[in-house]
């Protein structure tokens, strides 16, 4: 089947939305919205409110473009908040990995093949790390190459400092079970390295959605979160939740950030944002009923 849908001027985009049942009181304002946020991007936010099995995709309920924009703005604020949380986890994880393995295995431990489980992955990850070093413009990396010839690559505290969280996650997963891995895991309040590996992988997946400005609020997360039975500190009690919904990821992020910095305001800001979620969309994010009554979510 050939795709032959024509390009619509904004005025006709507005007419189509109104024809489908979306309330638009101020067409000038709607024109401004659609001039800066594409029709197709907003489609991700109108989709849940439309009957998408019908050819004209009519809106199923009484909804306005202001409602859609409120949801869009909420999702944007949620992405920005998550970026802040992932940054804290990423820096702490990076610091702990570099520190513990370097103490036991020296400055260039990341180049030691025997520390890793899968040799083919080790080679692949090392190649990716080299690419990241080649394109980085950090002065400390340039200084190393200008001053030192042996080893040919910078030490772990330089090399892993410039790598992406995605590659860091893969390196950590491939490291063999050892006291260093347990130490990093315990530092982040978890008891099983497998759980930490899963959480970081999940966080990377969510971060990538945020980095590409993707829809997040009702997203099905492809990396399902491992919900541990036990943790070093109190975690959510209700574990009968969807591991592929955002609630599970947010709970895990709050837990890690609280461990890293108990005085942080991430949980407070997240709760304030969630309580203003438009169009009663908490269920779409996987929030269980009375979630805020759990001790884990209460503000001290």
Overall mean pLDDT stands at 94
* Beta strands, count: 0
Give the terminus-to-terminus CA distance. Answer: 59 Å
Principal-axes geometry comes out as globular
Cα gyration radius (Å): 23 Å
Low-pLDDT sequence parts: none
How many structural domains? 2
Query: How helical, in percent, are the residues?
Result: 40-55%
Order of helices and strands: HHHHHHHHHHHH
Key descriptive features of the protein:
2 domains, 300 residues, mainly alpha, 12 helices, globular
Written overview of the protein:
With 300 residues, the protein is mostly helical. The chain folds into two domains: 10-63, no CATH class; 72-297, no CATH class. Helix content is 54%, strand content 0%. It has twelve helices and no strands. Helix 4 (65-105) crosses helix 11 (246-260). 28% of the residues are buried.
């Amino acid at each position: 089947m050939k795709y032959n849908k024509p390009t619509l001027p904004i005025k006709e985009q507005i007419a189509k939305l109104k024809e489908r049942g979306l309330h638009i009181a101020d067409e000038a304002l709607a024109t401004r919205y659609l001039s800066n946020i594409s029709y197709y991007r907003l489609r991700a936010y109108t989709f849940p409110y439309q009957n998408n099995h019908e050819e004209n995709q009519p809106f199923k309920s009484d909804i306005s473009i202001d409602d859609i924009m409120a949801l869009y703005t909420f999702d944007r604020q949620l992405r920005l908040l998550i970026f802040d949380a992932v940054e804290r986890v990423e820096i702490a994880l990076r610091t702990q990995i570099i520190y513990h393995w370097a103490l036991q295995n020296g400055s260039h431990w990341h180049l030691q093949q025997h520390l890793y489980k899968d040799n083919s992955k080790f080679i692949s990850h090392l190649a990716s790390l080299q690419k990241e070093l080649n394109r980085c413009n950090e002065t400390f990396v340039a200084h190393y190459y200008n001053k030192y010839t042996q080893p040919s690559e910078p030490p772990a505290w330089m090399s892993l400092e410039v790598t992406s969280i995605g590659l860091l996650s893969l390196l950590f997963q491939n490291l063999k079970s050892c006291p260093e891995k347990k130490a990093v895991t315990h530092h982040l309040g978890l008891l099983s390295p497998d759980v930490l590996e899963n959480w970081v992988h999940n966080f990377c997946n969510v971060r990538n959605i945020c980095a590409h400005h993707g829809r997040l609020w009702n997203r099905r997360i492809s990396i399902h979160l491992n919900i541990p039975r036990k943790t070093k500190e109190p975690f959510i009690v209700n574990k009968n939740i969807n591991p592929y919904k955002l609630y599970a990821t947010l709970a895990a992020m709050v837990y890690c950030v609280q461990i890293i910095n108990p005085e942080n305001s991430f949980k407070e800001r997240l709760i304030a944002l969630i309580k203003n979620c438009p169009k009663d969309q908490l269920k779409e994010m996987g929030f269980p009923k009375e979630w805020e009554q759990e001790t884990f979510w209460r503000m001290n």
